[in-house]
Amino acid sequence: MERKIIVNEAVNSLMAEMVLDEAIRQYKQRQLYREIDAALSNKDKAAFLTLTSELKSLMSTA
User: Fold this and answer.
1) Measured at the alpha carbon of residue 55, what is the angle toward residues 50 and 56, in degrees to the nearest 5?
2) What is the DSSP string of 41-57?
3) DSSP letters for 7-24
């Protein structure tokens, strides 16, 4: 019985970590989109290229 409790706690912990990781990834993605929009508005090519590179990297790890 104790082993089952330990396994359940481990599974719950893993699921919580996965949910948190996804929430952080989505937050970072939204933030990058806002910064990319600002770079476009400001005609800042260097920032745009840097930010889109970061976004591509973030999306490739999803």
Assistant:
1) 100
2) HTT-HHHHHHHHHHHHH
3) HHHHHHHHHHHHHHHHHH
Is residue 39 within 8 A of residue 51, CB to CB? The reply is yes
Nearest to 58 by CA among 20, 31, 19, 18: 31
Residue 25: phi and psi, rounded to 5, are: -60, -45
pLDDT digits (tens, 9 = 90+) for 31-62: 999 999 999 999 999 999 999 999 999 999 86
Give the residue extent of every domain in the chain: 2-60
- What's the predicted TM-score (pTM) here? 0.80
Nearest to 57 by CA among 40, 27, 32, 22: 32
